[in-house]
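Two proteins follow. First one:
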Amino acid sequence: MMNLCLPKIYQVSSRNVHFNRSSLLVPNYKINKSKTEFRDNETNSISHAILENNGFICESGPGFSTFLPLGKRVLNKTISLIREEMNKIDGQEIEMSCVSDLALWSKTGRNSLMGHELFRLRDRKDKEYCLCPTHEEIVTSLVSKYSKSISSHCIGDKKSLRLYQIGKKYRDESRPKHGLLRSREFYMKDMYTFHICEKNVEQTYDEVCRSYETIFEKLNLNYNKALASVGSMGGRKSHEYHVNASVGEDKIFTCKKCSQSISIDLIDAEKHQNLNQKSLCQVTNCNKNLNQNELDEKVEFKKCIEIGHTFILGDRYTKYFNINLEKDSNVVMGCYGIGVSRLLQACVESNNVENIYPNWPLDIAPYKVAIIPAKLGSQEDERSQILVKYLTNMLDSSVFKDEVLVDDRNWMTIGSRLIDTKLIGVPFSIVLGKCIHDEQIEIVINSDSIKSILGKERINCHSRETAIVLKQLVNDYYYMKKDNKLFNYFKNI
């Protein structure tokens, strides 16, 4: 048996931050492939089924969902990842009310433009309000109110004011479906930037777009950036970010020569069938030299999920509000949105195992490590319980703080608990089975069923080496998955 004479650091009584699986609010799993094998059915979504069946969300009404504990952890991590990137580009986080005076929307003309999609309501005094799908009116009114306090160090020739928030939005969808993909209540990150010169707008636009690309790359998403219509938002320039998905309701065309994309909204419906590379490249300003055969070749058509949208608004909103700066300048705007809850589901739609198991990006997995002790009454039971206490103390106090889930349901077999761990998308499991007789623990990479053994020489009770080794395994694995050749070599060892 391992030398478990623990040092004082692990003998001190303290509140552990790991969580026990038996206490987690998760529905009973029923793996039914017939419920998830409907990718070609436009009325259903694999990712929606996974999120509901595996205990991440629960529908509370048409277009409304409750985030269960697992889903809330994933959502919070997604928000933290986005917040970190927004702060890196000098974004200042605020929080605006979800309820807006409808008079503001009438002032900009969007009350009528939004039509039935805008939730409208009246208070007891018969005053009209709306639930905000976006916040251009409120944030522009806010900047106008404080414009006399804004210096050139805040909005100047080389400086822009960048305000953002992450919170709930509302849209009265006529046919909500696909869970978080098309809902009436949704989480969004929206940033609003204010400038006194067009050059600065363009620079900020490019900077925010690069930040978006960093976010999507961290989430392992194969995205497309497409030139798009400004729609009811207005302005002069817009791009959409998409993830390919058969269940997606957005459509883009992509040039096979230059890989540039354009939203279907920018193309005359009558030209869809006859669209070729030449006409697409003219729209996207492609500079590639195309031969005659390439000119006649049809462009690639894709169904997608929109996960982000960026706009240069010009004075579309600022002209309705009196913003008096020190300089007599025309204040212009940009706005930038990421559908946070939709982004979460897009990660599952584009990256899952067998249409049943979510393969979460490491940064937003609900837990990074699960510990699975031996079954109750087995020969390994007593030893594994001692190891559980040691491992949780060690991991909780090191690199995996708040990232450890202990599956303490020891009346179940190890195999059943491994399946449950895979169903919620925990990337790694530490299995304390028969191998502990040989003073070893088993590490399982859940999404690929790859196993590795750590021997006693790497499980040192007097250091945090085991935690460091596990962390290295995590980092190495996700690095290798980005390189298919390296990953396949590792998988076959």
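Second one, unrelated to the first:
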Amino acid sequence: MPLDWDLLFLHARLACMEKEKIPIKWHGREKNEATYYCRRCDVEVFNFLFTTQLEDKHVVFCEECARQADSSLLTYTVLQQFELEDLMSVRDNFQLRPASLSTDLGSPLLSAADVPKMPGLAPAATQVVLGPAGTAPTKC
């Protein structure tokens, strides 16, 4: 479910930018490429990079900070790193494999049976995580 919310959020953002006729350039992402963070608020920026040039360097902003500076986004170049279809394919083909939670000494740190007993944690099937930063997809 969390991946579905994230994909829905990305789809909503793309639809809004297309509706507003904001040009989006394909950027892609190289294997082992560094993660991007907003220059202003330091949040991780995923898929849609809002870039501008400062002092002969390209810098990245999140959409919220970019829109605070220029609501039309005309002073930014929007770069897209992933096609939504590719992200959906990753989600559809994702398989969770059992992993051993152990220290280097081989003693278990936590067993699956312990998770529901831990205060404040609901079983994974009942946890709901919304879009980025806990937000629901927004309207344009």
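SUMMARY FIELD: Residues 107-112, 114-131 have pLDDT under 50 and may be disordered. The radius of gyration is 19 Å.
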